[in-house]
Amino acid sequence: MGIEEDGNRNSYDIIADILEACRNPLRKTPLMSKASASKVTLDKILRICLMEPSLLEKKITDQGVIFYQTTAAGLEYLQKYKSLTKLAKPERIITTEAPIPLLQVQY
Questions:
Q1: Number of Cβ atoms within 10 Å of the Cβ of 56
Q2: Which of 25, 27, 52, 65 has fewest C-beta within 10 Å?
Q3: Which residues, 6 or more positions from 93, have their beta carbon under 8 angstroms from its beta carbon?
């Protein structure tokens, strides 16, 4: 049940966008718009995020309206995701035009 990349975003980015959008309860259609996810992608991710440990909670009102809200585990995912993406920013990656020479070890 893999999730394909969506433009420039991978599945981790899309999950983070969905969890961020659902900090406050949100219905499916507004969630698709806020997270910029297609229905197919959103459905796949909702299935994953509702599994244990649950990153999202599905809430159903007395009128049968379904809302999704980020759980404590989902907020923890977001915190770790943001920390990792901050570490992996392109400006933090050192590039050189010439390859770095390998150390020569003599035995």
A1: 23
A2: 52
A3: none
* CATH pick for 11-92 out of 1.10.3720.10, 3.50.50.60, 3.90.650.10, 1.10.10.10: 1.10.10.10
Contact 14, 24 (CB under 8 A): no
pTM of the predicted structure, to 2 decimals: 0.74
CA angle 96, 105, 95 (to 5 degrees): 10
SS3 category, 26 = strand
Q: What is the pLDDT of residues 87-99, one digit of tens each?
A: 876 655 555 555 5
Angstrom distance (rounded) from CA 35 to CA 46: 12
d(CA 99, CA 102) in angstroms, rounded, equals 9
Which structure tokens are listed for 64?
């049968």
pLDDT, tens digit (0-9, with 9 covering 90-100), for 23-81: 999 999 999 999 998 999 899 989 888 887 899 999 999 999 999 999 999 999 999 99
